[in-house]
C-alpha cells in the first residue's frame, strides 16, 4: 500500500489547529506531526485486504466466505482486515473523534475501486446512516466521513438524503447474527418512495462489515428505489 496515503493536510490552518488539538495516531494514540494521519510504526502493521478477501461478499475466503448466503448487494470492496491495530483505528474513529482513520481507509478504498474500474461505474455514493440522536451525541457519522474520502477528487455526489436510521437502544455489534438481520430490516428506511434511482449504480459506504446485515438492509432499500447495482465499500471486514 502506497505510504503517501497517510499524508495529511499541510495548510497553515491545520498547523494552528494542531497547536490547540495535537494530532494523534488513530492506531496507537501517540502524538504525530500535524501533516500526517498515523505514525511510521503503525502504518506497516495495518492488515490490508488481499486476495484472500472475496470481492463479491467482502468476507475472508478462509475457511469459507459469505457468498452462499442471500445478499442484496452486488459486490463489496474492503480496505483491511478487522484485526490487530485496525480494530483500534476503527474504535478511535467511532468513539474518540479521530477522523484520521476515515481518511486512511477511505483513500485506500477509493484507490482500489479506481484500479478495479468500479469507481467509474458509480453514479452516486450513500453512507450508511446514523440515527439523528446518535449523530448529535457523536457529532458526526463515521460512515459519512469515510464516504467523503472515498469520493474525494471525483465527480461522484454523496447523498445523505436517501437512507435514514431509527434510534435503537441496542447497538448492532452486541447482537447475534439473526438479531442483527431482523434489527437491520426494522432500523433502516427511506422517507419517500418517490425517489428514483432507476438504472443507477450506488456506492454504499460503511465502517465495518461483520454479518452483512446492515449492508443487505440498506442495499435492499436502494434497489426498491430502482438502483441497478449496489457496490459496497467497507473500511474493514471481520
Describe this structure in words.
The chain has helices at residues 12-20, 85-95, 100-115, 132-138, 142-150, 177-187, 213-224; strands at residues 75-81, 124-127, 164-165, 188-189, 201-209, 229-237. The protein has 238 residues and is of the alpha/beta class. The strands form 2 sheets. A 4-stranded parallel sheet has the order 1-6-5-2. A two-stranded antiparallel ribbon has the order 3-4. Helix 6 runs parallel beside helix 7 (213-224). The longest helix has 16 residues, at 100-115. It starts with 11 loop residues before the first helix and ends with a strand.
Q: What attributes characterize this protein structure?
A:
alpha/beta, Rossmann fold, 32% helix
Amino acid at each position: 500500500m502506497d505510504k503517501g496515503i497517510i499524508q495529511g493536510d499541510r495548510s497553515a490552518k491545520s498547523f494552528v489547529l494542531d497547536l490547540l488539538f495535537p494530532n494523534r495516531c488513530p492506531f496507537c494514540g501517540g502524538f504525530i506531526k500535524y501533516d500526517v494521519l498515523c505514525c511510521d510504526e503503525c502504518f506497516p502493521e495495518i492488515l490490508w485486504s488481499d486476495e484472500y478477501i472475496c470481492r463479491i461478499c467482502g468476507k475472508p475466503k478462509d475457511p469459507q466466505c459469505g457468498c452462499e448466503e442471500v445478499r442484496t448487494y452486488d459486490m463489496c470492496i474492503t480496505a483491511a482486515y478487522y484485526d490487530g491495530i485496525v480494530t483500534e483505528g476503527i474504535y478511535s474513529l467511532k468513539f474518540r473523534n479521530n477522523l484520521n482513520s476515515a481518511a486512511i481507509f477511505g483513500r485506500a478504498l477509493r484507490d482500489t475501486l479506481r484500479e478495479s474500474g468500479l469507481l467509474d461505474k458509480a453514479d452516486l455514493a450513500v453512507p450508511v446512516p446514523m440515527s439523528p440522536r446518535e449523530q448529535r451525541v457523536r457529532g458526526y457519522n463515521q460512515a459519512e466521513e469515510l464516504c467523503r474520502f472515498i469520493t474525494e477528487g471525483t465527480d461522484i455526489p454523496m447523498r445523505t438524503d436517501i437512507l435514514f436510521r431509527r434510534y435503537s437502544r441496542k447497538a448492532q455489534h452486541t447482537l447475534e447474527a439473526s438479531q442483527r438481520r431482523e434489527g437491520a430490516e426494522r432500523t433502516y428506511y427511506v422517507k419517500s418512495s418517490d425517489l428514483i434511482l432507476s438504472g443507477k449504480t450506488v456506492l454504499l459506504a460503511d465502517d465495518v462489515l461483520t454479518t452483512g446485515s446492515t449492508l443487505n438492509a440498506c442495499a435492499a432499500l436502494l434497489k426498491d428505489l430502482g438502483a441497478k447495482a449496489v457496490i459496497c465499500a467497507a473500511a474493514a471486514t471481520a
